[in-house]
Amino acid sequence: MTDDDARPLPTGAPGVQLFPAPFEQVVAGLRAGIAALAADEPFHRLAVAPVIARRTLEQAGYVAAFPQLLGTVHSYQGTPAQWARLAPLVPDGGDWHREQRIGDLVLLPAACYPVHASLAGRELAEPVRFAVEAACFRQELTAETGRLRSFRMAELVTAGTERHCLAWRERWLGRVGDWLAGLGLRPAVEVADDPFFGRSARLYQAAQRMQQLKFELRVELGPGLVQAVASANIHKDHFGEAFGFTAEGAPGQTACTAFGLERIALALLHAHGPRPSQWPDGLRGELGLDR
């Protein structure tokens, strides 16, 4: 591996990778590009922790909808004297964790959930907008390229009336598609069918397709391997109902645009080669790689 090779390195855990400096430079360029796209709207920027209150995800419906993806935080809550019985199990990889208990935190699965919870009880006199980024976790079952368990997600989130959220999502769907195309990728827009809400997955998959609640922008990350790298979503009044915020006297509605930073970077490596130093000048300039 050379100094300008941006390809991630594997670790002992599937879906968890090490990212060399050239890869991180590409991610920084993507982050700056997203900020530039959002410069004409009054987004409040928030730093989001990699963990979230378990109760928040229970309220949001994530636990019911995606139990297989959720990473929970367990810890040992006994005394040092009680631990003395379990400590000898550690060196040989024994069942030292058998007395751990689930805590009040879980690993954050998407950057927007703390934002929705922060609106609890508010009446939104006008639309609100937030720009967030977070390290997220999902217990993916495969470790194909781009299918990371630990990954970074940037999101633009808005809340307000149905009219506002529908128009906002439509505008951002086109804007993100144009941006990805400008990076030399070829995004295909598809209606997604993974459920937002915590009831019957099959029921909500059908509902999402009919209502077109979630659009994914999918590109190639490897030969024959196409994955979603961004999405534009309408949640209707799901989070307004869950967290009790309103707009114009009705339950507030929300929309978001999400960017998988590692996935977009991996798509760029596939499209343009593993060495960003050899990418076309226009692309390097767009990502700020010559600075």
Detailed description of the structure:
With 291 residues, the chain is of the alpha+beta class. 32% of the residues lie in helices and 29% in strands. The chain is built from 10 helices and 15 strands. The protein has helices at residues 21-37, 54-60, 62-65, 80-83, 113-118, 162-182, 201-211, 238-243, 261-272, 281-286; strands spanning 9-10, 17-18, 44-47, 51-53, 72-76, 100-107, 123-124, 128-137, 150-160, 188-191, 214-222, 225-236, 246-247, 250-251, 253-260. A 7-stranded mixed sheet has the order 3-8-9-15-12-11-10. A 3-stranded antiparallel sheet has the order 4-6-5. A 3-stranded mixed sheet has the order 7-13-14. Strand 1 (9-10) and strand 2 (17-18) form a beta hairpin. The longest helix is centred in the middle third of the chain and has 21 residues, at 162-182. The chain is flat. The two termini are 23 Å apart. The model is unreliable at 198-205 (pLDDT under 50).
Question: What is this entry, summarized?
Answer:
The chain is an alpha+beta fold and 291 residues long. It is built from ten helices and 15 strands. It starts with 8 loop residues before the first strand and ends in a 5-residue tail after the last helix.
**SSE series:** EEHEEHHEHEHEEEHEHEEHEEEHH
Low-confidence stretches: 198-205
- Helix- and strand-based class? alpha+beta
Tell me the number of helical segments per DSSP (H or I, 4 or more residues long): 10
